[in-house]
Amino acid sequence: MLSDFKFAFRQLAKSPGFTAVAVLTLALGIGANTAIFSIVNTLLLKPLPYPDADRIVQISEVPNLAGAGNAPAAGGVFMDWQDHSTQLECLAAQHQAEKNLTGEGEPVRLTGAEVTADYLRVLRLNPALGRSFTAEDDAPGGNRHVVILTHELWQSVFQGDPAVVNRAIRLDGESYTVIGILPPHALPTSSIAFLTPATIRADAWKQIRDYNYVVFVTGRLKPGASVEQAAAELNAAKRALNSSYPAYKAKWKVDVRSLQDSLFGNSRPAVLTLVAATAVVLLIACANVANLLLARATSRQGEIAVRVAMGASAGRIVRQLITESMLLALIGGTAGVLLGAWAINPLVVFTGIQASTGLTVDVDTRVLAFSFAISCATGVLFGIFPALSAAKPNLTETLKEGTRGSTGGSRRRLQSLLIVSETALTVILLVSAGLLLRSFVKAMNADPGFTRDNVLIFTLNQPATKAPTNDHRVRFTREILDRLARIPGVAKVGMVSSTPMNGNAYYGDMVSREDRPETRNDLNAGFDSVKGDFFPAMGIPLLRGRFITDADDSETAPKVMLVNDVLARRLFGDEDPIGRLIHFKNATWEIVGVVGSIHRFALDFDPSPEVYYPQVYFPWYTNYVVRTHVPPLTLAADIRRAVHAVDPEQPVSGLQTLDLAVENSLRGRQIMLTLLGIFAGTALVLACIGIYGVMAYAVSQRTRELGIRLALGAGARGLVALVLREGLKLVLLGLAIGALGSFGASRLIASQLYQASLSDPFLVFAIVAGALIAVALLACWLPARRATRIDPITALRAE
Fold this sequence. Notes:
Distance between the termini: 36 Å
Largest sheet: 6 strands, mixed, barrel
Low-confidence stretches: 401-407
Number of helices: 25
């Protein structure tokens, strides 16, 4: 075997041009697979960086188990699970909390989490400095004013000073003692900057089984316990306690799944689509290299015939040729791993994987094993058929003088089959990319229901120490709106509890017609509190009735609200909803207006039912919308000055244009489209090179025949048409097979398409087919044109 590798190395060294082209082609295919598999490995295969990570689970309460994913639970429901679980070693809740950090320079708005005492125990995570939370910290009457900082916040704000441990810092105007510093990138999400005790059992309002206090629940299974056993136990407990739950949760389920699946399971379809795309690129690369080997085998058929004549068996010839293919594949695989490793960093930066998860994407032993395996498989795949074709030469014909350049019919058929195959694969990839592009264009052109130009959005939140009552918060908002409205260049200002396209999603709350108590017709609807000129600032039209006014923004005023037209149609059909009463949050509200529906979560999410009511009833989250007459960001400094004039310690967070927020909502779709487009473009280039290579080789092998045709009076156009016909036959056959495959592929990526219609695959295929035929014509025309310039005398002397 060693002698075979030495001989193979000498053979490849003799043909540096062939070797370089083959290695580059393989490196592209294997490198793309290595880079994408590195992401698959990190997100779906590699265990999370915690001890016994396979025992960490996410627990959710959901209307149905389909697509439950990373869903929340209510604080009271978490307490039920704590009291009735025997399959879990420990259980913890996490509630997102935002607090203003002051007294450390410029005020900063931080996103953190209120967690129960066992949160770090679930992860088996210990602070790098200081201590963890104790049961007393999280108990009624305990010291809830303690905080653990992440390593990243410790470095960025406190410059890594170890003396900050046991020191007091101010969060939302209150003193918190720093008791610990976490290790770098310790938590499952990088958005959390600090941890404080949740104290759920100390506050009655957190213990309600409705969504007053929303938590994400994680647990650690006991040794030997399974996800299925834990789910069965918690669902049995839920059924036993059903009478204590809100009526709309009567048929809800408890979902238990691994934390890894909860965090990254939703990304599986997109990631697997990219895996399929890179596999197609690799198959096309294999087809090209196989064609190169077939062409090279022609020049070596004399050598092989001599070896066979001297007694070499067909098996011995195949082994030698496969050895050469394997060596070529391993060299290409090594180059591919280097190329893939280089591509990982820009790929991670582009996709934002590390920024969103804190995970490290790299080439580890599993990725190396994968790359080695596909290199070996590739070597066999592109080498076996050329080897079998070359191993049985016609000795009589091959050893004759002047037939060294002849090509057998079986070899030509194999080359044709390879061209048809890579054309079909290219069509599938191009159609998939085209469908995603069309879907992306549809999403970008979707009417969001609001005017996105010349709008700034930002967030302010007053701590309870400065705004202890709802009226305090309403007055603060009114003063901010008044100051913002006086800034030159500002057209309209308003407040809303949650701006569109902010990356957050929630279940909402139940809304029903008050006049149908016997058939509640409950509807799960999103809700927002609003104040000021929110709707005019956003460009959301008033379709009927009136807006909410300052007179409505008082707890002594009648309860009124606006509904969007989606909710109005679902609850009242064609009836006029103005003046009608609806049931919401255990109270009766009068509808005073109907507004247009908006795309709340992303442009590719259809509008959902929504209610809007005065700020006084939901004052804890305040996001501001400023429509301007001038470029919005030019007013950023003026806005900060206006806010600090009201409260110098109030940070302005999330300041950005609404247009940018809309674009960010399609970031995932854009990433998918870009990557698939790159792979589709690579496939197209490889397919064109393959078609050109086969046609150029076929023309060179027919030099004598073409010379005779010219000598007998054949015209240049006739020769060109002859070559084009033969090339297009292969391409058209590949298009026909690719058409069947592409319609199957369109069904596989259907979940990633927005407003897909039955005509989309046909339209995209027509465009792809036209483009591929045009490219194939060019690839065939170049060698055909060369054929027309053959000197008949020279051609007749050929070979």
